[in-house]
Automatic annotation (TrEMBL):
Keyword annotations from UniProtKB, A to Z: Signal
Taxonomy, superkingdom: Bacteria
Signal peptide: 1-29
Protein name: Transporter
Keyword match Signal: yes
C-alpha cells in the first residue's frame, strides 16, 4: 500500500505552495523607472478550515491508498514584502490514510515559519486488517521477508491483525530559481506495534522494508523539477529509506543488516498542475503525478526476486481546498 506521508503520494514536489521565489534586483535609487512595474500578487494563506486529498497507486511493490487531511490553519505573519516571510502559517489537522490492508489516522501539527521551510509533527494510530499477508513479524534480520516468502508465511497463518502507533517528525525544504524547483523531504519515524512475543522486527508495509519494532526509521525524498508556465512539470526523484537497527539486535548478523538497509531508488518524475486559484476555493489546484523509478538498493528488487529492470511506479491525483 502507498505511504501517506509520502510520500510519498502527497504530491508535494509538483505543488508550488511554499516554494522560495527569487525576486528581481531592485532598480538603482538614482535611476527610478518612469512607471513602476505591477507588484506581484501576494500568495494567499487561508485563515480557517482547509483540506487536501491524494489518491495514489504503486507497482513493485503493489499498493493503493487515499490520504486525506482536514484542519484549521492561520497565517503566522500575514502579507509580507520580504519574499522569505510570505506564505508562513500554522495549522492543526486530522489526517487519515485508507488502504485495503490498513487504516491509519491521527493528528498533525504543520508549521511553516519561512517560505522555504516547513515542519510537520504527527502521531497516528494504525490498524492492520490481516489482509494481503500482513502484518508479519520476525525474530532475526536474517529471516527471509521477500514477497514470495511472505506469501508462503501468509498461507501458514503467520500473518495477523494488529495495531500500533506511529510518530513522525518531518522537515521539508523548498527552493525555486526561475523554472527550476527543488524539494527535499526528510522524515524521522518511530513505530511501536503489538507483535508476536519473541519477535523484534516486522515488515513495514508503507515503506516496504524490514523495521525494528519500537524503533526508528529515516526517509528522504528529493525532487528536482523544471516547471513550465502552462502546468507541466518534469524532472527526477531520488529516495532513500533507512532503518536504525540497534547493535545488540543484530549482533552476529551485521552483514545482513547492512544488506537490507537502506533501500534506494531514483527515476523520472512528471506532474501536471491545473490552475490554482490564489484565494479561498472549495476545490482547488488539482494535479496529476507519475514517478517511474528504478531500485538502486533493495534486498529483493535488484535481481534477487524481481529483476532490476522492473520499475517502481507511483501515480496519482491530488487536490486541495478551503471550507
Amino acid at each position: 500500500m502507498v505511504s501517506q506521508t509520502g510520500p510519498r503520494a502527497r504530491a508535494r514536489a509538483w505543488l508550488l505552495s511554499g516554494a522560495l521565489l527569487l525576486a528581481a534586483p531592485p532598480a538603482l535609487a538614482g535611476d527610478p523607472p518612469k512607471h513602476a512595474p505591477p507588484r506581484d500578487e501576494q500568495p494567499y494563506v487561508h485563515k480557517g478550515f482547509v483540506y487536501r486529498s491524494t489518491t495514489a497507486v504503486r507497482y513493485n511493490p503493489l499498493g493503493l491508498s487515499t490520504f486525506f487531511r482536514v484542519g484549521y490553519q492561520r497565517p503566522l505573519l500575514g502579507p509580507q514584502e520580504n519574499i522569505l516571510l510570505q506564505r508562513t502559517n500554522i495549522g492543526l489537522h486530522v489526517v487519515t490514510t485508507i488502504t485495503p490492508a490498513f487504516l491509519r489516522g491521527g493528528l498533525r501539527l504543520d508549521v511553516q515559519p519561512l517560505a522555504f521551510l516547513q515542519f510537520l509533527f504527527a502521531y497516528e494510530g494504525m490498524a492492520l486488517f490481516g489482509t494481503f499477508d500482513t502484518l508479519q513479524s520476525f525474530r532475526r534480520v536474517s529471516e527471509d521477508f521477500g514477497d514470495d516468502r511472505q506469501v508462503e508465511r501468509g498461507a501458514q497463518g503467520l500473518a495477523y491483525r494488529t495495531t500500533g502507533g506511529i510518530f513522525t517528525a518531518d522537515t521539508i525544504l523548498q527552493a525555486k530559481v526561475g523554472p527550476i524547483l527543488l524539494v527535499s523531504d526528510t522524515q524521522f519515524i518511530h513505530t511501536d506495534f503489538t507483535i508476536r512475543p519473541g519477535d523484534r522486527f516486522y515488515f513495514d508495509l508503507p515503506l516496504s522494508m524490514l523495521a525494528k519494532d519500537d524503533g526508528w526509521m529515516v526517509t528522504n525524498e528529493t525532487d528536482l523539477l523544471y516547471v513550465t508556465s502552462f502546468g507541466l512539470m518534469a524532472g527526477a526523484r531520488h529516495g532513500v529509506y533507512h532503518t536504525f537497527f540497534p547493535a545488540e539486535a543484530v549482533a552476529g548478523e551485521e552483514a545482513r543488516a547492512s544488506a537490507i538497509t537502506p533501500i534506494e531508488f531514483a527515476g523520472p518524475l512528471l506532474g501536471w498542475q491545473f490552475h490554482e486559484h490564489n484565494g479561498p476555493k472549495r476545490f482547488n489546484a488539482p494535479g496529476l503525478f507519475l514517478n517511474v523509478s528504478f531500485w538502486i538498493r533493495n534486498p529483493y528488487r535488484t535481481g534477487q526476486e524481481v529483476a532490476a529492470t522492473v520499475p517502481y511506479i507511483v501515480s496519482g491525483f491530488t487536490f486541495k481546498g478551503t471550507l
